[in-house]
Amino acid sequence: xxxxxxxxxxxxxxxxxxxxxxxxxxxxxxxxxxxxxxxxxxxxxxxxxxxxxxxxxxxxxxxxxxxxxxxxxxxxxxxxxxxxxxxxxxxxxxxxxxxxxxxxxxxxxxxxxxxxxxxxxxxxxxxxxxxxxxxxxxxxxxxxxxxxxxxxxxxxxxxxxxxxxxxxxxxx
Length: 172
What we know:
The protein is α+β, with helices and mostly antiparallel strands. The protein has helices at residues 13-20, 23-28, 37-50, 96-111, 126-134, 163-171, and strands spanning 4-7, 52-59, 62-71, 80-87, 116-122, 138-149, 152-162. The chain has a 7-stranded mixed sheet with strand order 1-2-3-4-5-7-6, with helices on both faces. The model has no long low-confidence stretch (mean pLDDT 95).
């Protein structure tokens, strides 16, 4: 299943509020429950000011997922890009997350000159960890009690993919 990936716009705010408000999404992101459309409009408007670059995946004209790339303002970290991703719970397990991540990696390495793309994932999110490993991300370590989830501090796993690994994937 192929999706259309495009830049996020303010008009996507309502759909993103729906996706990030879903219980399944809440379990595996750092977003707070019950996000408002206004909150998402402000986030999207503010993206350029904070170094975020957002994209959405559309299927038959409906936004079904998003990825946001987070660039660094600190000079010595500008080579690092991280990301956040979510897929509508009604559209999971269809390859949408993979397409969004592939797009994000291409954008980061080929257009932002990133040398490293990194992420943090809840340690109990085995499906996401398996996908990231399948895409060549390497586990770097565990951050103990790093993020609040369901009222308890949970461990997160740090993973990364380097530009040399990304470009090696294409030369093989």
